[in-house]
From TrEMBL:
Keywords: ATP-binding, Magnesium, Metal-binding, Nucleotide-binding, Nucleotidyltransferase, Transferase. InterPro entries: Mab-21-like_nuc_Trfase (IPR046903), Mab-21_HhH/H2TH-like (IPR046906), MAB21L/cGLR (IPR024810). PANTHER family: CELL FATE DETERMINING PROTEIN MAB21-RELATED (PTHR10656), CYCLIC GMP-AMP SYNTHASE-LIKE PROTEIN-RELATED (PTHR10656:SF42). Residues 228-321 form the Mab-21-like HhH/H2TH-like domain. Gene3D superfamilies: 1.10.1410.40, 3.30.460.90. Its cofactor is Mg(2+). GO terms for molecular function: ATP binding; metal ion binding; nucleotidyltransferase activity. The gene is MIEF1. This is Mitochondrial dynamics protein MID51. Residues 63-187 form the Mab-21-like nucleotidyltransferase domain. It comes from Stylophora pistillata (Smooth cauliflower coral). It comes from the Eukaryota. Pfam families: Mab-21 (PF03281), Mab-21_C (PF20266).
């Protein structure tokens, strides 16, 4: 390619400053709102008013991975529930990635149990969502962000709490709270199963999640050499979702591809032009995944995270990536 690495590095850094980096002010605001409203009030209320207790919180997602772009306006928190000393029995199901959970000697879960298993839908909606709503009704304003209101809604496996500035529609922060169980080194969330291939009592199913494991890997990936991995992935995430690029890949597809990419040995992440080198390298890797129609799940053997895409869409993404890599004009265009 005619464009040299050093000019490309400068273009990428300029793009990052202009479109990608979140301000320290919004990051601090997000952490303050989580502390003052979520931890100190909503979580505290649940602890004080429920027979089901909270063991700990797991902070996951892009904000806590150091991969949030543009604004610190979202946070994801897994609310790990405390179980009896007998623990939780994990029962495999016919649905890939989903299990049933059976609580042993745990009367606190009996109200939310069906056919001997903890009902994910019931626990999430009847218990957790209700308690979050009750907690929000008792919220006390906390400076410096006292002029806000909280709105609760369902969001997949989560109960979403939006913190909105009073007198406006400005959303300062959206927090996904996900009631979860940890069994050994595995985590389970009440993510609804979609599809008709597997019938019968889908509300009882719990989805195995790898969010805590991914967070630990991604949050620390630059800790040893102080390289440019975080900066690179933030840039690519921002580019991919811009209209000029128009690739229908979400954050999870990109994180999965990137976790595969950084596993390669012998990569230099600290040279002056490492950012440009790996920008081109990662886009080329994405193109290969699109061409092969295959992007393996990092933790589940035999699972392809691109399975839901139609062949025509995959071909379009492959061609789009190839055209960007082969044209200096198109490469410059996506970095404007």
């Amino acid at each position: 390619m005619a464009l040299q690495a050093s000019p490309l590095t400068k273009k990428l850094r300029d793009f990052s400053v202009k479109y990608v980096k979140i301000s320290e002010e919004t990051s601090t605001r997000a952490r303050t709102l989580v502390k003052e409203y979520i931890e100190d009030q909503i979580i505290a209320y649940i602890q004080e008013n429920s027979e089901i207790k909270i063991l700990k919180l797991e902070y996951t997602g892009s904000f806590y991975e150091g991969l949030k772009t543009e604004a610190a306006d979202e946070a994801d928190i897994m609310v790990i529930l405390k179980t009896s000393s007998s623990g939780i029995e994990v029962i495999p199901s016919r649905v890939p990635g989903y299990v049933r959970l059976r609580a042993r000697n745990a009367p606190m879960f009996s109200k939310y149990t069906s056919e001997g298993s903890i009902d994910a839908e019931s626990l999430r909606d009847s218990w957790f969502h209700s308690l979050v709503c009750l907690a929000v009704n008792k919220i006390k304003p906390k400076p410096p962000y006292s002029g806000v209101r909280l709105v609760v809604r369902s969001h997949g496996p989560a109960v979403q709490v939006d913190i909105i500035r009073n007198g406006s529609k400005e959303k300062l922060l959206s927090v996904d709270l996900v009631p979860s169980f940890q069994v050994g080194d595995s985590w389970y969330v009440p993510k609804p199963f979609k599809g008709n291939r597997y019938a019968l009592k889908n509300g009882l199913l719990w989805r195995k999640t790898f969010s805590p494991k991914e967070k630990r890997l991604l949050a620390s990936m630059d800790s040893e050499d102080h390289g440019c991995r975080h900066e690179l992935l933030r840039i690519v995430k921002t580019i991919i979702k811009r209209p000029v690029t128009a690739l229908p890949l979400d954050s999870y597809h990109l994180k999965t591809a990137f976790m595969h990419y950084i596993k390669k040995g012998g990569l230099n992440w600290i040279s002056r032009d490492a950012l440009a080198t790996h920008f081109l390298g990662f886009l080329a890797e994405l193109q290969i995944h699109m061409a092969s129609r295959n992007l393996p799940h990092c933790w589940l053997h035999g699972v392809n995270v691109l399975d839901d895409f139609k062949v025509e869409v995959m071909k379009q993404m492959e061609n789009r990536l190839r055209s960007i890599l082969n044209s200096e004009v198109k490469l410059n265009k996506i970095l404007e």
